[in-house]
Design goal:
The chain is an alpha+beta fold. Helix content is about 40%, strand content about 25%. The protein has one domain. It is built from three helices and five strands; from the N terminus they run ααβαββββ. Strands 1-3-4 form a three-stranded antiparallel sheet. A hairpin with a 2-residue loop joins strand 3 and strand 4. The longest helix has about 35 residues. The chain is elongated, with a radius of gyration of 23 Å.
Length: about 140
């Protein structure tokens, strides 16, 4: 009888470990998809972003709702490396998109709550700086 109990416990631990590993891999894939969604963010499409994030969550077996997804889109002075390189002659109007998702993934039929925050820099096209005339001596 003890052998059956030990065998059942070992099987339960192995099953939980495999499900935890699969959930971690799916979470990573989900975060990469949300990153791609964040690149399409604008000031006027937050409802569409939330809908797409909920759809991606359902594809990995996670449960979430649109009210558990927050989208922030704001202007930023941050520049990419390339933009910093040409920053002396050009100006940029970059934006930062942040998507925060609270979701749960079941492991052994127990929902485990998780939270992901995805941040991306949305780069703009550069505009040439105005040239200033130097005063004559």
């Amino acid at each position: 009888m003890k052998k059956w109990i030990v065998l059942a416990v070992v099987a339960l631990v192995i099953t939980a470990s495999v499900q935890f590993l699969i959930a971690s891999l799916r979470k990573h894939d989900f975060e990469s998809k949300v990153f791609e969604i964040a690149k399409t963010a604008r000031a006027d499409n937050h409802d569409e972003i939330k809908r797409r994030v909920v759809e991606e969550a359902s594809k990995i077996g996670a449960e979430t709702a649109a009210d558990k997804v927050t989208v922030q889109y704001a202007a930023t002075s941050d520049l990419s490396g390339t933009q910093r390189f040409v920053g002396k002659i050009m100006t940029f109007d970059n934006h930062r998109a942040t998507i925060t998702v609270e979701f749960s993934q079941p492991i052994l039929f127990i929902p485990i709550k998780k939270k992901s925050e995805i941040v991306t820099l949305i780069e703009s096209a550069g505009k040439q700086r105005e040239q200033r005339d130097l005063p004559e001596p």
